[in-house]
Amino acid sequence: MGRRIEIGILYSRSGNYRLLSESCRSGAMTAIADVNADPAIPIEFVPVERDPQGNIDGYATGCADILANSGARHIIGCITSWSRKEVIPILERAGGTLWYACPYEGFEANEHVVYMHACPNQHLVPLLAHVVPRFGANGFLLGSNYIWGWETNRVARDLIADAGGKVLGERYLPLGEVDVSRLIAEIQATRPDFILNNLIGSSSYAFIAAYAELAKRDPHFRPERCPILSCNLTECELPALNEAGNGHLSVGPYFHDMSAADRQGDSAPSVMPASSFEAAAYASVRTLAEILARNPGAQWPDLPQAFAGTSFRTPLGDISIDPQTQHATLPVQIGRIEGTAFKTVLVTKGVAPDPYLSRYDRTETFGHPRLRVVS
């Protein structure tokens, strides 16, 4: 038995985004079990778990409780950017680290957070670069009414303008709202080329179901004509859609349908998580285990040195983590929904993180702008 090290787990097991949370928790707990069973790893993780129960106030409370009443200095947790923002002051005050396994809106790099899922240059930018030439540049933007929706749509507005398109509408719903009739009516009236869906949980499921009904009435809204695009929809939520999502597109660093041989690097482990959320949470635990195996007392000031010049073997492939921003280099995959799975339609390996889009190039992404002749 290796040295016992407590590790925090902070995921809700109920609430509007329960399916996402359970997927992350499953990945983290599976990785803990695998680490503890691996004789080559000289540590044993002891999970210290708190359940915020879907209440935003519960994340800061749970984080503080873990850091104050256990030996855990590292926490795997949080789903929404709202919850991540809530715990950062606690982490800064107590000297903890959050390993965050969900896509987010970018424009953040906190030394107390390790960002193990995609940022905008790894999700939204390549997704729109793929979609605009195939469907058109005029979009309708949807979001849950908090920072993920606001900021992702802010970036989308700029990208759509760069592509020569127009934002034909932008609407937000409170978390958990399922009355989407107004959204459907506006989308039908404006007839965009695509819908960017930054709703989460039950709001997203309700919208996708209603949009499928719209497509039955109006062929313009079939996925081959006007797809729904998502940066955060994964396999763990597809059963909730009852195939209403068929044909629509999502982007992420991992889809379950790809074989290990096709993943980034040549040494991806045989474990095949069910979604990118599960894979990123698993990768968080395994990466932390590698670091603590070398330095059992490693805390947040030690992480940049631990990341420098190192690659980590994960279900996402062999990844590296930028010591300056603490964001992971990840593959980018675009997938089309087919039943309860995604069919991968595009893969780009080894995309370095650019959370502030400082290296974004409009021409490289969308080509040269078309010039209008003005008489």
UniProtKB/TrEMBL annotation:
SUPFAM superfamilies: Periplasmic binding protein-like I (SSF53822)
Pfam family, one: Peripla_BP_5
Protein name: N-acetylmuramoyl-L-alanine amidase
Annotated source species: Mesorhizobium temperatum
